[in-house]
Amino acid sequence: MTDTTPDLPPDTPVAVKEPSRFSVAWQSDFAWKFRRSPVALVSFSVVVLLVLAALFAPLIAPYDPFNPASLNLMNGFSAPMTPNAFTGDTFWLGTDDQGRDVFSTILYGMRISLFVGFAAVLFAMTLGVTLGLIAGYVGGWVETIIMRVADVQLTFPAILVAMLIFGIAKGITPVEYRDQMAIWVLILAIGLSDWVQFARVVRGATLVEKNKEYVQAARLIGRGSGAIMLRHILPNVLSPVLVIATISLALAIIAEATLSFLGVGAPPTQPSLGTLIRIGQGFLFSGEWWILFFPAVTLLVLALSVNLLGDWLRDALNPRLR
């Protein structure tokens, strides 16, 4: 068979296809570590699966557990995968005392837990990073006040600080708006109890970065303090912040569950996983174990997966381990 390919001069340039940004990112050192870590792959997959299940709960859940019109009290205390003695209906994870499908309540409850966790961490991160940047860059009495407040708060357990803030905020909220504002008050309480670690880490990193040459050059060309902190220092201190935020997400979810279990968190009209565990705890010793067991296992898997992912991020972004 004759080769019809024309002979090209040696100096003829050959077009080379540029790799896509996704291809470059996937071949990076960080992506390589991610692909080679079974813990990271499994924990990330579980977190994504649970988050998607919570986001699409109205489409996935077979019942709307918080619509009174769809409830049938005759379905109460149905065991998992067992036909109800009165109605003959079968539920995957059983039902609670009001006939609500436990699987559906977990999906809807996970939405509240994840929303509170993400919002509280975002609030704590924003507050802590801002105060840490100011304390590290400005210094003087401003740094002293911010760090002493942080030191005082560290002497108390975070859950007690959250309970105190929640009680004060709920007390000053009008009675008719308490149930409507309960979720936002919960976010405020957890966020204000968790900003300290962000501020301490950012303040330490800022003290190192502000003496480097690029910051000195920014001062020489007339950049203001705010611009230097936001455009020059902040991008260089974000790596540890992202790690802390991932680990704090698991702690925020557990804090929300703890507060809701104690009865000072999410209202009964918007139950989270902690509220479902509190409800199920009342029926544990009467034989209806599934009302407590399945929400508790879901909370455990969610918090453990986020925590393992945060631990892997800490190791992967640690320059000493590269």
From TrEMBL:
Record's bilayer topology term: Multi-pass membrane protein
Compartments where located: Cell membrane
PROSITE patterns to which the protein is assigned, alphabetical: ABC_TM1
Gene Ontology biological process terms from the UniProt entry: transmembrane transport
Keyword entries, A-Z: Cell membrane, Membrane, Transmembrane, Transmembrane helix, Transport
UniProt-listed InterPro entries: BP-dependent_transpt_permease, MetI-like, MetI-like_sf, OppC_N
Alphabetical list of Pfam families matching this protein: BPD_transp_1, OppC_N
Transmembrane segments: 39-61, 112-138, 150-169, 181-202, 233-255, 289-313
Domain ABC transmembrane type-1 positions: 110-310
GO cellular component, one term: plasma membrane
Record family assignment: Belongs to the binding-protein-dependent transport system permease family.
Name of the molecule in the record: Binding-protein-dependent transport systems inner membrane component
Species of provenance: Dinoroseobacter shibae (strain DSM 16493 / NCIMB 14021 / DFL 12)
Taxonomic placement: Bacteria, Pseudomonadati, Pseudomonadota, Alphaproteobacteria, Rhodobacterales
